[in-house]
Fold this sequence. Notes:
By secondary structure, the chain is of the alpha/beta class. The protein has helices spanning 2-28, 34-53, 91-98, 113-122, 126-129, 156-162, 215-243, 251-273, 275-279, 295-312, 344-366, 411-414, 440-448, 465-469, 561-577, and strands at 66-72, 101-107, 166-172, 196-200, 282-284, 287-290, 318-323, 373-379, 388-389, 392-393, 415-421, 430-432, 436-437, 479-484, 487-494, 501-509, 532-542.
Amino acid sequence: MKSHGLRSTFQTLCVTGGAVNAQSSHSHNGQHDSTPVTFVLLSYLNIWLILCLLPRTCVSNPSKPNFLLILADDLGIGDLGCYGNDTIRTPYIDGLAKDGVRLTQHIAAAAVCTPSRAAFLTGRYPIRSGMASSTQRQVLFWNGGSGGLPPNETTFARILSQQGYSTALVGKWHMGVNCQTRHDHCHHPLNHGFDYFYGMPFTLVNECQGTDDPELAKSLQDTYWFYTQMFIFAVFTLVIGKLANLFPVKWKIIICLAICGLLHFISWFSSYGFTKYWNCILMRNHDIIEQPMNLQKTTSNMLKEAIIFIERNKHRPFLLFVSLLHVHTPLITTEKFQGRSRHGLYGDNVEEMDWMVGRLLDVIDKEDLKNTTFIYFASDHGGFLEAHRRNSQLGGWNGIYKGGKGMGGWEGGIRVPGIVRWPGALPAGAVIDEPTSLMDIYLTVVQLAGGAVPQDRVMDGHTLLPLLQGTEQHSRHEFLFHYCGVFLHAVRWHHKDSGTIWKAHYATPVFQPEGSGACYRRGICPCFGDGVTHHNPPLLFNLSQDPSEANPLSADTEPLFDTVMRRIRRAVEEHRKTLTPVPQQLSPYNNIWKPWLQPCCGTFPFCWCHEENNKA
Ligand SMILES: *[C@@H]1O[C@H](CO)[C@@H](O)[C@H](O)[C@H]1NC(C)=O
Ligand SMILES: *[C@@H]1O[C@H](CO)[C@@H](O)[C@H](O)[C@H]1NC(C)=O
Ligand SMILES: *[C@@H]1O[C@H](CO)[C@@H](O)[C@H](O)[C@H]1NC(C)=O
């Protein structure tokens, strides 16, 4: 039915579409004589006419919306006015919700950056792409590591690019850079369907600012020091043994060991002083333009890049993914916003982020793209409860929900704000309480762009359109699996007939200090080992009645307890059958610093540069 209508209008669509495309791609490259332009235009038209006779190759359908996807970093669901915060000022995001649809049960697939973003970009649980960790390190630690989003994963950006969209990523990536050599860029955004990239291949960390509170170094220093001592001890013993003829060993082996030890020591050492150089870098496409980054200008530069991209692509369908560095520590906030909020530096940073969203909405309005642009706003996971310096809270607020960043099972780690606006096509001021996932954006975006979802793999999202448009009342998610790394911590069951949402926890983090509601002593909650409590029988909550997960049910208090647990157990078994072993991108080997993979804008190890010196 749909393709009928499409085919009858193909000719007209493609003629206009082709002309627009030809023009805009030329205005990109600057001035041309009018004769060649006309010639090129005509030949483009011909090609388009021919292409358009074949169904599905016509890429410029005016009914395809543009996409502006905005993802905040570490923002809690309780940090926004439209989610009930009455002391923080977020007028632009609140306005977005007023003119669009607000999702109240929008769930991230992981409670930390790397896996949550992998799921967002691929529409699949991160365990399927190997982006879920089985170690203590739940995210990528280095630009110079070898792990990252595998090249054979298909992001929605790649599909949209194939559909004729102009695609860009502005901001944070945190999905890896290289596999085997310094320049292969196998995990780079440009290798994953983005035509343009401006931003950080890594993520903001405290080291970028040089505060007294190094994040990476702290979590690494003990392990590194331990191994360094081991190396020294081993080499020392072997040398003594060799010299005293106590046992036969080859000098070669001793030298190898000494070199390994030295490399290890260097990487330990560099995690102190050099993280800033190794990780805090800014790229434009494949080029490093700032190493280390100049945080003073970052906010205005990101905004400028996003706005220029919209202006440059206003005549063709575009996908712009603005992956904000806000509101991750160290909370880089321009002077104008410092001291403005009632919630210290964190609040200032949230209010600045809201202002940035406002600037993006302005340019959409100004360019008359309001009704043709699908705008999405969300956070990658819950607020970071453990982030604080002395007495001031530097992390977000997750409202009534228990837990936060790093806690893959508790609601506060995974329930995030989610807002969609598309005037004319979606209702204004609607609120949807059904379970939805960040992974749903993939299916929604691909469907709207007229693309095809990959058929050779399991997808875990569902299109949001019927829910958003109000043609369906219930979410298509029956079960959602809540992972912490590769460990299944909890399962949510949306029982269709009764509408009840049940949630069973198999493992929960041990709060330190006890009863504090977070893992303050560890800095972030672990996913396994002695840092978690296993529950058998599982902790069961009725989320519909007890969204704060305060009152666990038991077989005595809940007549349906056994039935619910049986159904959930069966769902887990079925889910497990769909998992296949894949290379572990966050394995210790893939997640250590490898000097030969370190992106470097000078001659390694002398890596520093600034935009001025680096204009192509
Ligand atoms: C609003 O957000 C701030 C900053 O995260 C938080 O401290 C405060 O408790 C929140 N207020 C409400 C009413 O949720
Ligand atoms: C955009 O959509 C709204 C809501 O349907 C409508 O009132 C408005 O006239 C449209 N604006 C344009 C420029 O088409
Ligand atoms: C990507 O390649 C890996 C390793 O060869 C394989 O295990 C995985 O199934 C592939 N993924 C997809 C989506 O094809």
